[in-house]
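INTERNAL AUDIT FORM
Audit reference: QA-55
Scope: verify that the stored structure record matches its stored sequence.
Auditor: D.O.
Record contents follow.
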Amino acid sequence: MAVVEVKNLTKKYEKFVAVNDISFEIQEGEIVGLLGPNGAGKTTTINMVLGILEPTSGKINIFGKNLKNNRTEILQKMNFAAVYAHLPTNLTVIQNLKVFGHLYGVKNLKNKIDELLKDFDLEKFKDHKAGSLSSGELSRLNLAKAVINNPCLIMLDEPTASLDPSVSKDIREMVKKYVGKNISSGLELGKPAVLWTSHNMREVEEVCDRVMFLSKGKIILEGNPKTLAKEYGKKDLEELFITVAREPLSLNNEI
């Protein structure tokens, strides 16, 4: 089942086209990488799927419902984490989780927070203010916040940026473990889906089932991250990324 269906999505700012007529789907249980150089349109796309930005044109269906007409209902089963989306630094770990738990109307919130503190190795930091946490601890808190409402769809925008390899590995494992669970969308049980942006191609190869490359607001190629580079005569995904960033037209000629 398609958790996300995006059709002919476009976002314009006067004469500048940030996202240009893109279409894609994300299936239940899929981790999909949205890749591309800075300015390609990744964050704009995520913000439209989150309902933060209004598309200039196109349609977004999530859980089989139109986002524009069912925004409040849909957002209750979604969540988001990014290194630039800072949590209130003057609140403790447990206070942050309580605030977001109440915002999402989480039932049995105390039990849920205890579970998250354990799952994300945050028990010993529960009374520490978010502003005093290391980058790795803060990333774990961000991810705990991102699953507090048992979302069926999670948007992760550069979730491991600036983290050391050990912490990044922990974050990846936590996400993969979550995607392996059955989550109720309100009607039936199903595995959640993730839309993940990253500039770390080794990470993408490890965690993503499928990738889409954006260049100047358009999806120019997509496929399995473990085989896509060879399909375009590149030695690895990093070389393919560099080609997308520098010479996207040469790839278009190969399609």
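Auditor finding: record pair retrieved intact. The chain has two domains: 2-77+151-254, 87-149.
Action required: none
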